[in-house]
Amino acid sequence: MPLSKDELDNLLQLLGNTRAEEIDCEQCLDLVAEFAERVLAGKSPAERLIAVEQHLSVCAECREEYEALRLALRRLESGRQP
Amino acid sequence: MQRSNSEWLAHLTGEDDLRHAALRDLREALLRGLRAALAGSAHACGAFLEDAVQDSLLRVMDRLHQFEGRSRFVTWATSVAIRVALTELRRRRWKDVSLEDVVAGSDFKPERAVDGDRNPENALRRAQLLDTMQAVIYRGLTARQRTALLAELRGMPQEEIAIRLGVTRNAIYKLTHDARKRLKRGLEEAGYQAADVFTALTK
After folding, report:
1. Could you report the per-residue pLDDT of B86-117, keeping only the tens digit for each?
2. Could you tell me if A68 lies within 8 Å of chain B, comparing CB atoms?
3. Do A33 and B116 touch (CB under 8 A)?
4. What's the pTM?
5. Which chain A residues have a beta carbon less than 8 Å from that of B53?
6. Quick one: which of A17, A51, B120, B173 could link to A57 by a disulfide (CB 3.0–4.6 Å)?
């Protein structure tokens, strides 16, 4: 079974975002709360958080977790509890 | 009770009364956070959230020394809880799927990706790039790297690949990161640069 177009596009996208040095999922977890708060406050990521942004571009699980965190912060902040 | 970051740390590691009160408040904060984060998930019912919060409290206490105080403590703890909860949801979703089934029959051939391109020149460039990539995949990657990369492309979570290969999620990340670097380097050595990759991607 060959790769589908979506799988290959995904692979090409991953390669485009790949860097020689990347943080791993545990390091991302240590930093993602700070990253999410800055984004929510409309601030650009500090130098040390650029690695988080890059990691999120190549790691689907961390990206899903970050999106969930951002959603939670936004909902809690606006007081709109589900 | 509102606490500063240093108060959270002091109370969670303090005398019994302070610790119990802080754990109770943290438990409530994590439950609120998970409810807000997973509101759209059909499987995140009350019992699931209660269990996830309980597991999360243990994880937060284990990782307490890693909190650097660069965000609010509750935000940091919620990020840990979200990882615990989503990891469990992924596990449930993938529990009956074997790694062999996910990668079965794949030979990394890019045939379907080239089909349907109406511009012959683009189709040819894309086919050449994909042929090169396929060659690099077989020449440059180990069987384990190919398996992990393919499973990831097919949506299997790294944690699930890790369980089936008997390693940690971080080890899978490193394995696929090395695979991506080799693949990228192989394409660059064949004359493709990042811009070519994106051009091929967008056709």
Report:
1. 999 999 999 999 999 998 876 666 655 555 55
2. yes
3. no
4. 0.90
5. none
6. A17
